[in-house]
């Protein structure tokens, strides 16, 4: 995702707080025309979404794409299940990971790359409460150090 012609539409900021991100992978999404137009306007939310693999295909659930205002009869259900475009070997690799206990497929970002809507998926392991507290404590220390450095100079 280090390309100049990438426009980030939606991010899942909660994901890095709730999970340890092990690996990331880029996937395409099967969308209708009005959904693409709505995403281009930035009307997309992936906060509570997740990915499941069924019958050798990957699907994203709870991804909310707001209906396009000028779409009238062509608008789809905002929370419908959408198919992800991945190679068979990538799906096999992901299925192997999420079959292990504690692992999940979580979308991190939705972006437009070279005119196509893409989604960045992460193979993630759930954090425990004490892990979250450690992260918060580390961030507090970092902020404190930054404040002290700023005051000195």
* Strand arrangement across the biggest beta sheet: 1-8-9-2-7-5-4
SS field, number of helical segments = 4
Share in helix: 25-40%
Structure summary, number of beta strands: 9
Gap between N and C termini, in Å? 35 Å
The geometry reads as globular
Unreliably modeled segments: none
H/E series, N to C? EHEHEEEEEHEEH
Radius of gyration: 18 Å
Structural class: alpha+beta
Major sheet = 7 strands, antiparallel
Percent of residues in beta strands: 35-45%
Average residue-wise pLDDT: 85
Overview of the molecule:
With 153 residues, the protein is an alpha+beta fold. 32% of the residues lie in helices and 37% in strands. It is built from four helices and nine strands, in the order βαβαβββββαββα. The protein has a seven-stranded antiparallel sheet. Strands 3-6 form a two-stranded antiparallel sheet. β8 (103-113) and β9 (116-126) form a beta hairpin. It is globular and about 60 Å long. The mean pLDDT is 85.
Descriptive keywords:
153 residues, alpha+beta, seven-stranded antiparallel beta sheet, 32% helix, globular
